[in-house]
TrEMBL record:
<protein>
    <submittedName>
        <fullName>Uncharacterized protein C16orf45</fullName>
    </submittedName>
</protein>
<dbReference type="InterPro" id="IPR022735">
    <property type="entry name" value="bMERB_dom"/>
</dbReference>
<dbReference type="Pfam" id="PF12130">
    <property type="entry name" value="bMERB_dom"/>
</dbReference>
<feature type="domain" description="BMERB">
    <location>
        <begin position="1"/>
        <end position="112"/>
    </location>
</feature>
<dbReference type="InterPro" id="IPR040127">
    <property type="entry name" value="BMERB"/>
</dbReference>
<feature type="compositionally biased region" description="Polar residues">
    <location>
        <begin position="124"/>
        <end position="133"/>
    </location>
</feature>
<feature type="region of interest" description="Disordered">
    <location>
        <begin position="124"/>
        <end position="151"/>
    </location>
</feature>
Length: 175
C-alpha cells in the first residue's frame, strides 16, 4: 500500500521545526568534529615536543667540553624544532579561541532569530485564538539558548583550550 505524504497530518510548521532541529544537530556535530580535530593536532604536537625535549635533555646533560660539533649542532636544531612546534601550537590555540568566539556569535544570532520568529508565530496564533487585539496581546519575552549552547556545556571541561592547557601545560613550555 502506498502512503502519500499529502495524507499526513504534519503541518508545514512541524516540517520546518523538524528540519531546523536536524540542521542544529548537524551543526553541533560539525562543531564537535572540528573540536576533536584540534584536540588531535594538539596531542600530536605535544607528543612531538616531548620527544624532542627528551632528546635535547640528553644532549644538555653531557658536559660542554665533551660534546662533539655534531652534538652541539643537533642541540641547536632541537631548540629550533621545539620553538617551531610551540609556535604552531600557539597558532592552534588562537584558532580554537577564534572558533569559539565565532560559534558564540552564531549561537547568539540564532537565538535572536528564533526569539523573533517565535514571537511572531505566537502573535499570529494568539490573534487566531483570542478576540484580544494584537496590540494588547501580552507577548511573553523568553531568553532562548540555542541547542548548541545547551549540548556543548558538558564538553567544555575537557575540550578545546582546557584540554590544551591540561595536555601541554608543563611539557610544552619552552625550557
Amino acid at each position: 500500500e502506498i502512503v502519500s505524504m499529502a495524507d499526513s497530518t504534519t503541518t508545514i510548521d512541524d516540517i520546518e521545526g523538524e528540519l531546523f532541529k536536524i540542521e542544529r544537530i548537524r551543526e553541533i556535530l560539525v562543531r564537535r568534529e572540528s573540536e576533536l580535530r584540534y584536540m588531535m593536532d594538539d596531542i600530536q604536537l605535544c607528543k612531538e615536543i616531548s620527544r624532542l625535549k627528551k632528546e635535547l635533555q640528553k644532549l644538555i646533560a653531557l658536559p660542554e667540553n665533551e660534546k662533539s660539533n655534531e652534538e652541539k649542532q643537533r642541540e641547536e636544531e632541537l631548540v629550533q624544532q621545539i620553538h617551531k612546534l610551540v609556535e604552531t601550537r600557539d597558532f592552534l590555540v588562537d584558532d580554537v579561541e577564534f572558533e569559539r568566539l565565532r560559534e558564540r556569535e552564531e549561537d547568539k544570532e540564532m537565538a535572536e532569530f528564533l526569539q523573533s520568529k517565535l514571537s511572531k508565530s505566537y502573535l499570529q496564533k494568539a490573534s487566531r485564538q483570542s478576540p484580544i487585539p494584537l496590540s494588547t496581546a501580552p507577548v511573553k519575552e523568553k531568553k532562548m539558548t540555542s541547542r548548541g549552547q545547551q549540548t556543548s556545556a558538558p564538553y567544555m571541561t575537557k575540550t578545546g583550550l582546557t584540554l590544551l592547557k591540561e595536555c601541554c601545560g608543563f611539557t610544552c613550555s619552552i625550557m
